[in-house]
Amino acid sequence: VQTLPRQVGSSLRFRGSGGPFQHTAPPGPQTRVLPADSAGVLATRPTASSPEITGTCVVTSTADSGPGTLRWCLESAGSGTTIAFDASVFPPARPATIAVASPLPPVRESRITIDGSDAGVVLDGSRLSGWSNGLHIGSEGSAVRGLQIFRFPGCGIFIEGKSNVIGGDRS
What we know:
The chain is mainly beta. 4% of the residues lie in helices and 32% in strands. The protein has one helix spanning 70-76; strands at 2-5, 11-16, 19-24, 30-33, 56-59, 82-85, 96-99, 113-115, 121-124, 135-137, 143-145, 147-150, 157-159, 165-166. The strands form 4 sheets. A 7-stranded mixed β-sheet has the order 2-3-5-6-8-11-14, with helices on one face. Strand 2 and strand 3 (19-24) form a beta hairpin.
C-alpha cells in the first residue's frame, strides 16, 4: 500500500486499464492508495491488504466492471464515501448508459451517497436475468440522487436499512 502526503481536500487522479478514476481525500494527514503492480496498474478492488476508499470516488467509465466503474466504486466504498459521476463521460444533456451485466454489489457501509445529480446517468438492467435488483441499499443513512434506473427484473432500488434518502437535493 502506498501512502502519500497530501493537503486536506486534495484530489488524486489515477489511470488504470479500465480508464481513469479519481479519489478526493477526506480531511486528515494522509491518504492510502490501492496497491499497484510493477507496471503501475492499480488493483481493481480492495483486498485485505488495501483500504476502502473514503471521500469521493468518481465514476469515469460506462463499462460494467473494472477501475473507474460504478461497480468498482461500490466495491471500494467505505463508510461516508460519495460516489459521483464525471460529467464529461456522463453529460447531463446526453445521459450515458451503464448496462449492468450482473447484479451490482450491495451498499453495506453506512452513509454512502451515490450522486448523479450533476451528470446524466442511466442504469439499465435489461441484460440481467432472474430476479435481480438495481441498487441494493443494505445500510443506514445512505442517499441516491440523480440517477435514471430502468428495466431491472427486480426492484430498481431495494432498501433494507433505515434513514436512507432516495432523490431530493443535496441540502
